[in-house]
């Protein structure tokens, strides 16, 4: 592979990683696109929300159960991503982080979170997929988080 081909592939890979990040934000905000959201992740994904007081989910089945519930009880979602940074990109693996402001409404109770996402990626025959996802608070977690996610 020539130097130019390597640079083009690097640019394409970085864009694909960022597109997956944004794809997740759009899918989770739709409150309906569960299959579209799952298509962004590997079958054995680890999706860890423990640092914000929610569960650690394993695989598509864990995500499907959790988000089917969330999509059922939330009336609104809005997630805004910024500061997306590829931290490592080496062949068929990568990692990135980003800041996210996420808001939602359930039964008139609103929650707004300021968190940092950590994403690990792997290149698959179908393209890049997220294989590990976690988030951590940037600002203190609001009490309303437990109100809107009271069943988890």
Automatic annotation (TrEMBL):
The source's domain of life comes to: Bacteria
SnoaL-like domain mapped to chain residues: 11-133
**Which named protein is this?**
SnoaL-like domain-containing protein
The scientific name of the source species is: Pseudomonas linyingensis
